[in-house]
From TrEMBL:
InterPro entries: DHFR-like_dom_sf, RibDG_C, Riboflavin_Biosynth_HTPR. SUPFAM superfamilies: Dihydrofolate reductase-like (SSF53597). It comes from Nocardioides plantarum. It comes from the Bacteria. This is Dihydrofolate reductase family protein.
Length: 190
C-alpha cells in the first residue's frame, strides 16, 4: 500500500504561498536546494529536470495529486504536463471539462481517488498542494515533509485550509540548512 506524503514549502507562519499564489519569497538558492536535487528529485517538474540535465529516479514518488491552482501555475508558461514522470491527478470540480494531456487526469472526488491510489502497488503518492486540497485529504496524509522557510508571509494559502480537527504526527527527522530552511518530517500517529 502506498503512502500519501504532503511534501511542501511553507513559511514560518504556515503559508504555502503569498497572496495570489506568489512563491517568490521562498529561497531558491542555498544548500537546501542540493538536498532537493539529491533526495526529492521526483518532485521537480519536467522543465526543471531538463534544464538541470537530471532524470526522475522514482525513489520517493510515482504519483502526484495537486489542486487546480497548483496545476494551473504552469499554464502561462506553456507547461501542461508538469510531471510526465509521475501519474498525475488534478483535483478540480470547476475545471473538470478542461482538456488535459495524456498522463494528466482530473477528479472531482480527490478523497476517493487517493484511497484508490493508496490501495495500489507503487512507490508513493505526493500531495503537491494546495491548502484546500490538503485539508480535504487530511485524514489520508501519512507523512508530512515541510520545507520551513525563514520568512513570515502574513497572508496567503494555509498549509491546511480547513476545519479545526486535531490530527497528530510524530517527528521522524529534522534537518537545518545554512540557507535558513529547516526540513521537518513527521509520520502520522494513528
Amino acid at each position: 500500500m502506498r503512502e500519501l506524503t504532503y511534501y511542501v514549502a511553507v513559511s514560518l507562519d504556515g503559508r504555502i504561498a503569498g497572496p495570489g499564489d506568489d512563491f517568490s519569497a521562498f529561497p531558491v538558492e542555498g544548500d537546501h536546494i542540493d538536498m532537493i536535487l539529491r533526495d526529492w528529485r521526483d518532485t521537480l517538474p519536467a522543465p526543471g529536470l531538463q534544464a538541470l540535465g537530471l532524470a526522475a529516479d522514482h525513489t520517493r514518488f510515482d504519483a502526484v495529486v495537486m489542486g487546480w491552482g497548483t496545476y494551473a501555475a504552469g499554464l502561462p508558461h506553456g507547461v501542461v504536463d508538469p510531471y510526465p514522470h509521475l501519474d498525475q491527478v488534478v483535483a478540480t470540480r470547476a475545471h473538470a471539462d478542461h482538456e488535459l494531456p495524456d498522463g494528466v487526469r482530473a477528479t472531482a472526488d480527490p478523497l476517493a481517488e487517493v484511497r484508490r491510489m493508496k490501495a495500489q502497488e507503487g512507490v508513493g503518492i505526493w500531495l503537491c498542494g494546495g491548502g484546500l486540497l490538503a485539508a480535504s485529504l487530511a485524514d489520508e496524509i501519512d507523512r508530512l515533509v515541510l520545507k520551513v522557510n525563514p520568512v513570515v508571509l502574513g497572508k496567503g494559502p494555509a498549509l491546511l485550509d480547513g476545519s479545526y480537527v486535531p490530527r497528530f504526527f510524530e517527528r521522524s527527522a529534522v534537518t537545518a540548512y545554512d540557507s535558513g530552511v529547516v526540513v521537518a518530517e513527521y509520520e502520522r500517529s494513528w
